[in-house]
């Protein structure tokens, strides 16, 4: 069976990031996405600069397309991402706006985007990547304007805009043990304690062939113990090119372990890959010398990693 049929048996969403452009232009890509995945995350189409390239001028076409295609295929949509420092519109950060105007723009943006898709989004990454590598809160255009409560503020605005969407805080490099994980845990615990409307925590899980994060299951469980869902939101497993049979086998093992750790935690609701095919993966563009990080190769042929994921889903 497909990954999506197998995942349904395990009461898990199996997701992929999807490119709006590839969906429009590549029927083979669209058909594999529809067949294999029960959840879709727009890879770029919902990012703030994409939907509002100029202040007050919106282009919803790509985001609408992904949502519409997913609906037609009976797939659940995971929204990504209302606020991400690396997706700040140029017009917001060019120094022309006052702090009050930035705050107003952030609130308006969340109301508009989460409001537009109200009822059609299962969950939102409300805030993406709040932490520096050392665990300190990142300084962003909005943290400077809104002060330290900007994260809490963003979650409240998202709840108001779409009361039924699950609201997630998403981060990378926090899968296992470590100072950044501990800082992330303290941040999330503080939000829960203050009554901020947060429903879940996302673990991106962009990794390579080095050993998997230590104590991932325990780490996921401590977040779940706060009363939250946990989700694996952006898995890919890059390798140093060129590929060899041994590297592809190792890659399959890393995918398998990541999924097994999610399956070991009842609150782990979804396992989402950051693109399913090497044809369009972001890795070669942004990580030099690395690539082939996905479940399917560039010809859309399943790799050993696909069989590993299917195998882990099949085992009861
Ligand atoms: O589509 C245009 C193309 O028309 C143009 O010629 C080209 C020139 O630069 O740019 C293309 O757009 C690029 C897009 O990827 C599609 O390839 C953007 O410049 C580039 O910034 C964009 O990168 C995305 C990146 O986030 C930054 O937004 C990647 O697709 C996307 O995979 C990556 O995803 C992030 C998550 O959102 C958050 N977590 C980490 C993850 C990986 O970096």
């Amino acid at each position: 069976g497909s990954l999506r049929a197998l995942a349904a048996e395990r009461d898990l969403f199996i997701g992929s990031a999807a490119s709006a452009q590839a969906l429009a232009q590549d029927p083979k890509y669209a058909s594999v996405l529809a067949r294999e995945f029960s959840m879709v995350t727009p890879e770029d189409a919902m990012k703030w600069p994409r939907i509002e390239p100029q202040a007050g001028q919106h282009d919803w076409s790509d985001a609408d397309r992904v949502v519409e295609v997913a609906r037609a295929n009976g797939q659940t949509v995971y929204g990504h991402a209302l606020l991400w420092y690396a997706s700040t519109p140029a017009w917001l950060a060019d120094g022309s706006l006052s702090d009050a105007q930035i705050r107003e723009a952030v609130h308006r943006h969340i109301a508009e985007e989460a409001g537009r898709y109200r009822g059609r989004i299962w969950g939102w990454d409300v805030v993406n990547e709040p932490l520096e590598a050392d665990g300190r809160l990142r300084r962003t255009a909005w943290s400077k304007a809104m002060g330290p409560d900007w994260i809490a503020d963003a979650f409240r605005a998202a709840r108001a805009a779409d009361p039924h969407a699950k609201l997630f805080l998403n981060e990378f490099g926090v899968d296992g043990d470590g100072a950044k994980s501990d800082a992330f845990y303290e941040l999330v615990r503080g939000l829960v304690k203050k009554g901020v409307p947060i429903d879940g925590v996302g673990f991106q899980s962009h990794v390579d062939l080095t050993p998997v994060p230590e104590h991932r299951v325990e780490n996921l469980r401590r977040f779940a113990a706060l009363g939250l869902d946990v989700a694996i939101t952006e898995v890919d497993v890059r390798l140093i090119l060129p590929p060899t049979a041994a590297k592809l086998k190792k890659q399959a093992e890393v995918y398998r372990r990541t999924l097994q750790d999610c399956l070991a935690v009842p609150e782990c609701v979804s396992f989402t890959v950051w693109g399913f095919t090497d044809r369009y993966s972001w890795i070669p563009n942004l990580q030099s010398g690395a690539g082939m990080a996905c479940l399917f190769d560039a010809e859309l042929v399943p790799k050993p990693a696909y069989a590993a994921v299917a195998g882990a889903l099949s085992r009861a």
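The CA atoms of residues 19 and 44 lie 7 Å apart. The two ends are 15 Å apart (CA to CA).
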